[in-house]
Amino acid sequence: MLGNTLTINDGSSRVLVKINQDNYSSEYLLRISTAEYRAKIRHSRTKATSLQPSYDRHNFEVVKTVFAAGDVAEYHQKFYFVMEQLASDDIVPLADAVADLAIASTNAFLVSLAGWES
Predict the structure, then answer these.
(1) pLDDT at 2 (0 to 100)
(2) Could you give the CA distance from residue 62 to residue 72 in angstroms, rounded to a whole number?
């Protein structure tokens, strides 16, 4: 079970506190004078069909809302990922490899994505 706080670092350490937990989801929040950070964790299962089995689905999303200041309007930044696998499968090595790609490239991979490279 995840704890009552999540810490992310976007240049400064941000400690988000759990504000809600329902069945298979949680929500965390941090509000500072210039912005709000909101993280959501959701778990679900896809519906099995005659052609495809049911998959476990795990979603993690962080939204940063930067409040309006002077002539600059309020805006949002969002980052999320989804992991989907058979209940009996282990997706952690694949997810770890993708996270390592972003980290090992010193963010060059993320900068390239944001620059519309493919």
Answers:
(1) 87
(2) 22
